[in-house]
UniProtKB/TrEMBL annotation:
InterPro entries, per the entry: Nucleoside_phosphorylase_d (IPR000845), Nucleoside_phosphorylase_sf (IPR035994), Pur_Nuc_Pase_Ino/Guo-sp (IPR011270), Purine_phosphorylase (IPR011268)
Gene Ontology cellular component annotations, sorted alphabetically: cytoplasm
EC number, as in UniProt: 2.4.2.1
GO molecular function terms attached to this record: purine-nucleoside phosphorylase activity
Highest classification ranks of the organism: Bacteria, Pseudomonadati, Bacteroidota, Flavobacteriia, Flavobacteriales
GO BP field: nucleoside metabolic process
Function summary: The purine nucleoside phosphorylases catalyze the phosphorolytic breakdown of the N-glycosidic bond in the beta-(deoxy)ribonucleoside molecules, with the formation of the corresponding free purine bases and pentose-1-phosphate.
Family in the record: Belongs to the PNP/MTAP phosphorylase family.
Annotated Nucleoside phosphorylase domain residues: 22-269
Name of protein: Purine nucleoside phosphorylase
Superkingdom, natural source: Bacteria
Pathway(s): Purine metabolism; purine nucleoside salvage
Length: 271
């Protein structure tokens, strides 16, 4: 990844009309309905954006959408990139750097995750308070990282405190049940074994997924305030573990998504 490549991506998007977005939004697995909320959308498909990776997962659509939401200019990623697709950390986080160069001042991230904390139930929303990186690498571990920001990035408070507070208040006001907890990021694409779920619980994870943490690390590298929420799509009880059903996971995500959209829209309104 070079500055020149990033500038070419940004230049292409600006020519398409992606002018000064204020907020970037990353949509997770099964969480694509929010795209319909955007007014006057301009769409750029990933395969047309210079140096952009391509989404290879069949339920990730692969486009960047610019438009207005709650009176603010937003740019939304419909389809994100994962390490399990064979991408490097720099590929997975490339769009975050592009959105920052386009002008975003805040970043919202969503994902579908499994509930490791058995007090949480499928269909719950969890505001991520902290995370554990179990992906075996970092999106900042490359030679010329210092060109883009500090090499050693503080992660004592990776998720923006003010925005988290606002989300909690909005959830209360809108009567949306909101959990808060620690998200563990693994590589995947296989789901966890019973022993792995037990380990995750022991080390303090409340939910587990295969994304989000690289993007959050890069947001912190770019001094970009970020929040993230998980839609909990399954319950990971190692003593009563059912075989995974991807269709059911996507169904739960789709059913819960309107609550997540409500949280994000109200947060945009308040910013």
């Amino acid at each position: 990844m070079t500055s020149k490549q990033l500038q070419e991506s940004v230049s292409y998007l600006r020519k398409k009309g992606f002018e000064n977005p204020e907020i970037g939004i990353v949509l997770g697995t099964g969480l694509g309905q929010m795209v319909d909320e955007i007014e006057s959308p301009i769409v750029a498909h990933y395969h047309n954006i210079p140096f952009f990776p391509l989404a290879t997962v069949e339920f990730h659509s692969g486009k960047l959408i610019f438009g207005t939401l709650m009176g603010k200019k937003v740019v939304m990623m419909s389809g994100r990139f994962h390490l399990y697709e064979g991408y490097a950390f720099t590929d997975v986080t490339y769009p975050i750097r592009v959105m920052r160069l386009l002008g975003i001042q805040k970043l919202f991230i969503s994902n579908a995750a499994g509930a490791v904390n058995l007090n949480f139930k499928k269909g719950d929303i969890m505001l991520i308070d902290d995370h554990i990186n179990l992906q075996g690498g970092s999106p900042l571990a490359f030679k010329n990282v210092a060109e883009f920001g500090d090499r050693f990035v503080d992660m004592s408070q990776p998720y923006d405190v003010e925005m988290k507070k606002k989300v909690v208040e909005i959830a209360k006001k809108e009567n949306i049940s909101l959990q808060q907890g620690v998200y563990a990021a693994v590589v995947g694409p296989q789901l966890e074994s019973r022993a792995e779920y037990r380990m995750l619980k022991i080390i303090g994870a409340d939910a587990v997924g295969m994304s989000t943490v690289p993007e959050v690390i890069v947001a912190n590298h770019l001094r970009l305030p970020v929040i993230a929420v998980s839609v909990l799509t399954d319950e990971c009880d190692p003593d009563n573990l059912e075989p995974v059903n991807i269709k059911e996971i996507l169904d739960v995500a789709a059913k819960t998504e309107p609550k997540m959209i409500k949280l994000f829209k109200e947060l945009i309104r308040e910013l």
